Amino acid sequence: MFDAAKFIEASLPKLRAQVGDNQALVALSGGVDSSVAAALMNKAVGKQLRALLLDTGFMRENEPEQVRKWMKQAGIELDVRDVSKEFFSALKGLSDAEEKRKAFRNTFYTVFGRETKKFNCDYLVQGTIAPDWIETEGGIKSQHNVLEQIGIDTKTKFGFRLIEPLSQLYKDQVRLLGKELGLPQEVCERQPFPGPGLMVRCVGEVREDKVKDLRHSVAVVEKHVTNADAQQYFAAIFDSRGKDAMNIAEQASELFDDKCSAFLYDSKATGVKGDLRFYGKLVGLKLGRRHPVEELSKKQLDIVIKNEGVCRVLVKVASQQKKEPYCVAIRAIRTRDFMTATVSDISWDRLDAMAKEILASCPRVWRVYYDVTPKPPATVEFE
Fold this sequence. Notes:
- By secondary structure, the protein is of the alpha/beta class.
- It folds into 2 domains: about 5-190, 3-Layer(aba) Sandwich (Rossmann fold), CATH 3.40.50; about 200-370, GMP Synthetase, Chain A, domain 3, CATH 3.30.300.
- The chain is about 40% helix and about 25% strand.
- The strands form 2 sheets. Strands 6, 7, 8, 9, 10, 11, 12 and 13 form an 8-stranded mixed beta sheet that branches. Strands 3-2-1-4-5 form a 5-stranded parallel beta sheet, sandwiched between helices.
- A hairpin with a 7-residue loop joins β11 (about 325-335) and β12.
């Protein structure tokens, strides 16, 4: 069983020896992992640590201000840089998930290389945890914060050396560590937030109006769903281009003993088949009646197996009458270690309330779905 106190006791002398008399800069994203890494490093080296959050344009609503407040409570002074124009420029025209992740990673560390020089810091500290490098080394998807594990020499390429104090831990252990370090409960129990932020929830090409609707949709989901319902919950957005899929509609009608229509979207998301990454399409189902979420989640696999190009199965909650450019998928999962996950049994009443609020405030959104695909065959995030 993981003992957070013993982990801290063993880590502090190692981290102090690693930093020595040098300065270190911690990269904060607003997520649990980077916040806990910052608190651990602050306990180890104190005034030798600086903290920086890059506002990439992919933050949640009021993220920089909220993170600054939490870090102040932890005794850490946080600097914030608005570099959103650099990131949107680097991602312009890209729609492939891997190309986007790599472009984000290169921009992210190029900017941090610049900032470590400004702060005269030799080390960059980040909150990489075990699932990050396991998924990257396994070829499932390139986590933006996995560098040395795949042979990237950060000192030569970006001008700093890395410190990753949480790299052997899993999410549940990181939360326990944060509590032991005295971080506020709202930080330790906060929803996981990927380093690339909303970019990995903006399926396909990134556009500013698309990210704006996504940011609001995520806020709606985080307002209606709680940690008692799921270990992770959020919204994703994708383009509404696609076509009717009569063969999948027939399969689903027979599978659920219900009248069903199906729409196969052009957008592709990341999934897993066997031990390999699978980059496949999204299928949206419209069923004649409301089925239990558990039933939907169990039977979706039949559709994924019979249709090689399909990665995820989404079930429609609500829609606008007029077709608009985007669709939103609500995602809520239960998991212990994020290596596997099941779909949370969110009531249809709450799904309806979320969909109604999203459609009312995001006029560019056509349909709102609930993602009923576990991990595997889907990954937790869409990209």
